Amino acid sequence: MALFGQLTKPAKELPLIDVSNPDIVMELLEELAITVSTSEWIKANEPYHPEAADLHDQAQDVYSDLLGIFQGKVRDKRVNRKVHWAGDPIREHLSRHEVNVEGDVIEFALQRFLRAFLEHARAPQEGRESISRKEYYAFMSGWAHYFAGLAPDETPPVDNLEDEE
């Protein structure tokens, strides 16, 4: 007698990166934000740090990689090929909602995200109050939903209080 599941084949897992999934996009944006903010901090505070060049290169690599993924240029085994959101579809979505765009709209929106993130990251060094964990999550979630095509801008999604009553 066989044990339950013993004769079944394990399910094949899909690649991690699905740019239509806001949870995955949020992780990608966080990785980018952390590496870029670390690089910016090093530039401003420890420019002669022994690993400064490596940190700056890493930030540029992460930025280029995510930009390429959003643009649909990265087609390696990390990216779920069944998801057709990257490239023209995301470009069309962002084009409907971004204003005063210079250059590629995907890169423009990604740069706008980074400026907003770095503004929050610099707050404590500039004597301003840091955002709370809840505000941080809302900020990142808003941008993730925007890049995933689920929202017309980066405004954080809100809980519908009527549903909770």
Q: Count the DSSP helices.
A: 6
- Assembly annotation: single chain
Shape: globular
- How many strand segments? 0
Q: For the residues shown, what is the average pLDDT?
A: 88
Give a brief outline of the structure.
The chain is an all-alpha fold and 165 residues long.
Could you walk me through the main structural features you see in this protein, from its secondary elements to its overall organization?
By secondary structure, this protein is mostly helical. The radius of gyration is 19 Å and the shape is globular. It has helices at 22-45, 52-71, 88-97, 105-122, 133-147, 161-164.
Write a concise keyword list for the protein shown above.
disordered N terminus, single chain, 165 residues, mainly alpha
Give the topology:
Elements: H1 22-45, H2 52-71, H3 88-97, H4 105-122, H5 133-147, H6 161-164
